[in-house]
Amino acid sequence: MVLVIVAGLGLGIGVATALWGLFPPPLTLRAALARLSGDHTPAPTDVFVDGVGDAQRIAGRRIAGQFVDTIVRKVPRLAEIVLPDLAITGTPTETFAVKVVGYAIGLGLLGPVLWVAMGTIGIHLSFEVPTLGVLVLGGAGAVSPFVDLHQAAERRRRHFCHSLSTYASLVSMAMAGAMGWASALEVAAGVSSTDWAMDEIAQSLLWAQAYRRQPWEGLERLATRFNVPDLTDLARSMSQAGDGARIRDSLDAKAQSLRLKETAALEDAAAAVTQKMLLPGVLLMAGYGVLVFYPALAAFTGSHI
To answer: Residue 26 — φ and ψ, nearest 5°?
Structure first.
């Protein structure tokens, strides 16, 4: 009976996957306009709920939202890490919650499937084995999206810091050309239309202008949202500088420190790659030594292969 249920479940998942591949969900308006204009946009992240009815979509979003809200309330330290990662990667919280649940269920069902498969070939195990497999594999499936999300967020933070150093240098050069610091901040943010980090900085400046705030308040708000400490330091140093000359000096210092930090990170990464290549080199030399000296050793000891 269990075999029939598992086989039916697997067949249903396979048919649903095949139908989803043959009849993909329609493009959103933003993706369709981007295709017509030739712009490159990332794949839509709401593929879990696209193509279904409005009632099912609203219900799915409500369930996913409750799941994320539970995580935020029960584990606030986890929320402090996950929410900035979601913001900087542009991943909707509902989609991420569905991904966590889907990975947990998918890997959790792998234990019972393997247990049934082993039973069919004559290897009978106790019922505790699939139960433990559900717990272990389900937990691993639930954790893996968090790991992937954090790694993607760290890559985008490194790119953001690289763009921030360029932005600080551009603002300093604009101020050196007799431009006011407020205008220099806006002009430097609009230099690159293809860099998402520059776009986010420009949006934060527009937010500050719309709400009649200082520009560094918008930058600090963006730093809090994305959890970028370097941008927080830059915004606070600008707020403490006061006049234009001191702001320029603080921008120069921050740009130089970011470049030094990026250079040190690249050197550390190169050193880590060198350390990783040390063990394969040692094993290769050991194998070469065995290959060279084994005939002489075999002849000396009188052993035969």
So the answer is: -65, 155
Give the whole-angstrom CA distance, residue 151 versus residue 157. Answer: 10
Threshold 0.70, pTM exceeds? no
CA distances in angstroms from 62 to 28, 68, 115, 151, 281, listed in the order given: 21, 10, 34, 27, 54
AA identity, residue 66 = Q
pLDDT tens digit string along 44-98? 444 344 444 455 555 655 665 566 656 655 667 777 888 888 889 988 877 888 7
Q: Distance between CA 152 and CA 88 in Å, rounded?
A: 9
Q: How far apart, in whole angstroms, are the C-alpha atoms of residue 305 and residue 299?
A: 11
Whether 255 and 230 have beta carbons less than 8 Å apart is answered as no
23 DSSP 8-state letter: S
User: Do residues 180 and 244 lie in contact, with contact meaning Cβ atoms separated by under 8 Å?
Assistant: yes
**Predicted confidence (pLDDT) per residue in 110-135, tens digit:** 878 877 777 777 777 777 777 887 88
